[in-house]
């Protein structure tokens, strides 16, 4: 038995659809510029160059249905709806063909971004942590367990703000497919049960403000909703 000098932090977790059990979160990996139209709206030409990754702290996850405070230290809080894959079995140097067998389940999540910080970091060649890895930056809807042989290669992915659809794409538009993303990540990291992968966002990213009601989903894989509350 270990005695800690302070109370240990609580284990971050996300909901599992259809029950009260929760999925514990170990790490959060995110893929940048993985849909062609979104890559263009960010000012880049989409190419099939190797994918790039960034991460968020595990405790950035929050549940669907919450009122989420408008993030501190930004005037440009942007939504990015994404398919989230949750790793349930250790994945080290796996092949794309084998990658999906390591997925426990899927959900719809939002990679909230402080765009002002992200652009400042991008333009000065500095890390993205302030723009991406902030508190409550990774809402995640309930996880739906993966079905044997399932491949989330197609399906509508969308997000609305106050009932107006802002992002409306399809998983088939992903430049790097989920099995490839998992395989590539597993060459750089030892993926473990509890890891979440946010797989990139389609075009239509944009700002939210206090009072906004956000809804989104990935057809067949999950959905989520949030209300943006006052700034902390
Ligand atoms: Mn993103």
Characterise the protein shown here.
With 232 residues, the protein is α+β, with helices and mostly antiparallel strands. The protein has one domain (13-229): Fumarylacetoacetate hydrolase, domain 2 (Alpha-Beta Complex). The chain is 15% helix and 34% strand. It contains five helices and 18 strands. The protein has helices at 36-41, 96-99, 115-124, 129-132, 178-188; strands at 13-15, 22-24, 28-31, 53-56, 61-63, 67-70, 77-79, 81-87, 103-110, 113-114, 138-140, 144-145, 156-161, 164-170, 196-198, 206-207, 213-218, 222-231. The strands form five sheets. The protein has a six-stranded mixed beta sheet, with helices on one face. A hairpin with a 3-residue loop joins strand 17 and strand 18. The radius of gyration is 17 Å and the shape is globular. The mean pLDDT is 97. Manganese (II) ion (MN) is lined by residues 30, 80, 82, 111, 200-201.
Sequence-ordered SSE layout with sheet pairings:
Elements: E1 13-15, E2 22-24, E3 28-31, H1 36-41, E4 53-56, E5 61-63, E6 67-70, E7 77-79, E8 81-87, H2 96-99, E9 103-110, E10 113-114, H3 115-124, H4 129-132, E11 138-140, E12 144-145, E13 156-161, E14 164-170, H5 178-188, E15 196-198, E16 206-207, E17 213-218, E18 222-231
Parallel strand pairs: 3-15, 5-11, 6-18
Antiparallel strand pairs: 1-2, 3-4, 7-10, 7-16, 8-9, 8-15, 9-12, 13-14, 13-17, 17-18
The structure holds manganese (II) ion.
Manganese (II) ion binds next to loops.
């Amino acid at each position: 038995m270990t005695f800690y000098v302070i109370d240990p932090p609580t284990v971050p977790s996300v909901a599992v659809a259809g029950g009260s059990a929760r999925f514990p979160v170990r790490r959060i990996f995110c893929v940048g510029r993985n849909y062609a139209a979104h890559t263009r709206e960010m000012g880049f030409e989409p190419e099939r160059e190797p994918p790039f990754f960034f991460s968020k702290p595990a405790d950035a996850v929050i549940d669907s249905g919450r009122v989420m405070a408008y993030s501190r230290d930004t005037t440009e809080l942007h939504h990015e709806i994404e398919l989230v894959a949750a790793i349930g079995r250790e994945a080290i140097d796996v092949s794309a063909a084998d990658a999906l067998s390591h997925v426990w389940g899927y959900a719809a999540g939002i990679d909230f971004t402080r765009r002002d910080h992200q652009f400042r970091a991008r333009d000065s060649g500095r890390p993205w942590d302030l723009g991406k890895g902030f508190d409550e930056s990774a809402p995640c809807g309930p996880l739906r367990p993966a079905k044997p042989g399932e491949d989330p290669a197609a399906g509508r992915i969308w997000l609305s703000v106050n009932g107006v659809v802002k992002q409306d794409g399809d998983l088939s538009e992903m430049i790097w497919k989920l099995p490839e993303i998992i395989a590539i990540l597993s060459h750089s990291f030892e993926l473990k049960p509890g890891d979440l992968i946010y797989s990139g966002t389609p075009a239509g990213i944009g700002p939210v403000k206090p009072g906004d009601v956000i809804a989104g989903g990935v057809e067949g894989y999950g959905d989520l909703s949030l209300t943006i509350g006052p700034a902390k």
